[in-house]
Each structure stands twice: as C-alpha cells, then as structure tokens.
Amino acid sequence: MDRAQKEKVVEELGQIFESSGVVVVAHYEGMTVAQMQDLRARMRDSGGSVRVAKNTLAKIALEDKPCASLAQLLTGMTVLAYSEDPVAAAKVAVDYAKGNEKFAILGGAMGKDALDPAGVKTVAAMPSREELIAQIASCIGAPASNIAGAIGAPASNIAGILKTLEEREAA
Questions:
Q1: Do 17 and 61 touch, CB atoms closer than 8 A?
Q2: Among 107, 137, 130, 123, which Cα is nearest to 47's?
Q3: Is the CB of residue 129 less than 8 Å from the CB of residue 87?
Q4: Contact at 8 Å (CB) between 108 and 25?
Q5: For residue 108, which of 135, 143, 79, 138 has the smallest C-alpha distance?
Q6: Other CB atoms within 10 Å distance of the CB of residue 81
Q7: In what order do the strands lie in the sheet with 78-83?
Q8: pLDDT tens digits, 65-119
Q9: Of 129, 111, 4, which is closest to residue 68 (Cα–Cα)?
C-alpha cells in the first residue's frame, strides 16, 4: 500500500469515526471468510457496516475525533462495526458474539463516550431508532383508536340488541 492509498484509508476511517452513531471494536482472530461474510451481511441488513483496517492507520484517523478513546482498543486483529443508528451495530455485534466465540467485543464508542464490553451490551439492549418510532406512533395513535372505539361502540350495541330481538321474534 503506497502513501496515497494510506491517506485515502485514513480519510475514510476519519469519516466513519465522525459520522457513526456507534463504533464497536472486536477481535476476529480465527474467523473464517464465511463467518466474516455472515457478519457483514447481518450488519448490512441492520443498516451498519464492518471494516477491517490496519490499527496504525485507524489510530491516525482517530486523532482529534470525539471517539479518540478507541485508540487503546486497537491491538491485534481488530474489526470495526459501525452504524449511523446508535444501536444497530451494537445489537448485531452482541448477537454475533453470542454465536461465535472467535468474535470477541473489546469495547466501543458512542459519540464522545467510551464503552467497555458491558457498555456495548447495554447499548445493544436499547430499542433501535425504528422501534422507538413505532412506539411513539402507537402512543400517538392509541387515543384516536380509543375514541373511534367509544364512538362506534353504541352503534354496535344497538345492532346487537336489534339482532337479538329479531332472533326472538323469529323463534
């Protein structure tokens, strides 16, 4: 890799560190290509990405970034999992680590906040952006559906009474 390529990688990593809602750092030593492809596919499905980069280039890219604390985690064979959604990458990484002992979460960062492995698990337990939107929408829609049910209830009660009276007359 020549100097121009290294500068390009550092620039790309810098953009990742600045724009991501969460970055998870993990060791992946001993994983097969198929396992790594599976991790990438899962991450892509959730809106995140996986990046393997030289630790020295990643450390250079971390200089003057909010998540500069990640530099201490970059030792050995590390992989970066990241997403704009502050929860997506953490969820996928934690789920993947449960099924693959060769994928070990070292920690991560959420904005300026450094996360240890337990912190990554805590972030993964939080609802995602889509889940929060769905919860808010259901809270907003619940009163309207209750009102519609209350308005429609008397009419259905009258219809039920009329039907019962008809059945009695017919019998």
A1: yes
A2: 130
A3: yes
A4: yes
A5: 79
A6: 29
A7: 48-51, 78-83, 22-27, 104-110, 113-115
A8: 878 888 888 888 999 999 988 888 999 999 999 988 899 999 998 888 888 999 9
A9: 111
